[in-house]
Each structure stands twice: as C-alpha cells, then as structure tokens.
Amino acid sequence: MSLNHKKSLKVFAVSGLSAVTLLAGLMQSSAKAAVPHSELGNYQVIQSDCQVTGTSDLVRAYRSFELDHEKRILVVDTQTFQSRLMDPRLLECSDEFSVAIAQSPYGRALNTTDSAPFPMADDGIQHSQKPVDGVFLTADLCPAGAHKFEQRFFDALEHLAIDRHQPIPVSLAVTGLWLKGHEAHFQEIRNLEKKGLIQVTWINHTHSHPYRVGVPESRNFVLTPGIHPEAEIQGPEMELLKRGEVPSVFFRFPGLISNETWIRRLKSHSLIPVGSDAWLAKGQKPQSGSIILVHANGNEPEGIDRFLHWLPKSSALGSFLPLTDLF
Ligand SMILES: [Zn+2]
Description:
Elements: H1 8-13, H2 19-30, E1 40-52, E2 58-67, E3 70-77, E4 83-86, E5 91-93, H3 98-102, H4 105-112, E6 134-141, H5 151-164, E7 168-174, H6 176-181, H7 183-194, E8 198-204, H8 229-242, E9 247-251, H9 260-268, E10 272-273, E11 278-279, E12 291-295, H10 301-310, E13 319-320
Parallel strand pairs: 6-7, 6-12, 6-13, 7-8, 8-9, 9-10, 11-12
Antiparallel strand pairs: 1-2, 1-5, 2-3, 3-4
Zinc ion binds near residues 140, 142, 205, 209 and 254.
C-alpha cells in the first residue's frame, strides 16, 4: 500500500494558520487520546518507512486500520521509540528513508534483537543497552481469575508517585484476554494514569497467552503447536486501540519462551522482544539498568511481596525509567 500524500500541506494552507502550528495540533490530536472507539476495522500489518510531513521526523509505520471509519496508521518514532496514531495524510513514505531508519536507535534495536543464538528462554532485551541511572519496571497482566488483581502493587506506585512528585513509569505486558475480562481493573490503571501517578507503556503479551501445565517448554507457550501467530500478535493491539490506548513496539513472550521463528516474526511485525534479568519471584535481584519482572495479575504474589520489600531501598538504583530509555 502507498502512504504517499504529498498534497497534505494544502490542507493547512486554507485555514490561515501556519502549517507548522496546524501540524503540531493535528499530531497532538492524533496522539494518545484515551477515549473508547466504537469501531476498529480493516486491521493490517504494514512496514513502511516514512517522514512526518513538514518535519524531519522519521517514523516506521507498522499497522494500518480504520478507527471510527477514519483511516489511521500506527507509527513509532525511530529516535524516541514512542508510538502514536497518525492520519496517513501527514506521512510521506518512501524507500529513500530506509537507510536512515535502519541506522536510527529504533532500527538498530530491531536488528540487535534478531541475532543468534536464539535461546529458548529469555531471548530479546533483558537489560538496558546503555548506562542508565535507574531500572525498568515491567508487570505482566496474563489471563487471571476475574477478581484477581494486585491492588497493593498499584497502591505502592501511587504512594511512590506522591512521595516523588512525579508519575512512576511502569510497563504493563497485557494480553487481549486480560483486557476483555478485567474492564474495571483496566479503568483503575487508566485513572491512575489520568491523575498523573503512573506513566504506562503497553507491552504486547499475546492475545491468549497459551500455556498448558506440565507440557515441556519446547511445546508450550507460543511454541504450542497449532496456535495462530497473527491472532496472538494482533489481538492485544486491537483491544488496546479499541479502548483508546496506544500499543508500544515492545513485546513480551509468555513465560519468556520463544524460538528463532518467533524472534524473526516479531521483527517482521516491527516489534522488539523484552525479557528480564530481574524476575523477582525467581529470586533474581535488580541491578542498575535491570528490567524487573513482576506479575500484577495476582498469579504470582511472591514477586509482589519481594517488590514491596525492595521498593523502600529502590532509589539506590536511581529512578524507574520508561522502556523507551533502554537504547
Ligand atoms: Zn505472562
């Protein structure tokens, strides 16, 4: 598909305002707007390298769809890793941007995550790729009983935000099924964000989170024979978009289990796998730059116990950082 829209600046000329002012306004309005949408359709995986019209910003366009009957493109900023929705009329897409995008922080990250030896456990990024003064807090929201939820985890983040006078960045790895079954918990998370207490990055954690007790890992999780990879990848993205949220380019494998086929599949979907070097329930201890993993769905309370025990001394490792600071 073509996303070339060289005429788009004409749209701005008629209003009397400068193109730049209007562009800024339009880009803001097409950015994160947490209102539910009644219709999401024609969802497609794309991969186009684009420039935002009237700017020097280079973005990778990676999903295309119609939201309430308006065409929208999900793009990631190749410098900041921030995803946002855009009107395709504001994008100029061409292969001429591909070399610059391959050499951008996003392009380099995408290339470093799909290299051998493809370990089955914890492949992808487990730790900051550069020195940082802080750690990355990730919490998984895998399917769980309807009433299960780690309220004490979110309460702790709320108190920390009040103490530190700033929102606490937290990355939530969410499944499509969790979103469908936990509307009230989802609203609670959104309210914390609306109040400026947390700053959420939504990580894709597959739609159904395949898992069978007692089955070897080589045939479990996403390696379960017969699962539908496209449905698993696109499901949580669509559930987030319908709820007015913007999925990031980060992906977490259920159980942190993957193989080469899946790692390459993520790259072809413009996604970056995020593992962990500090899965607290497994006894791993956070270091500077660690990606901490806990479960906020109530399925692994010992991880939250350890997190709450560690939290008062966490500032020795610096602040909590958004995943966009990993590279
Ligand atoms: Zn999980």
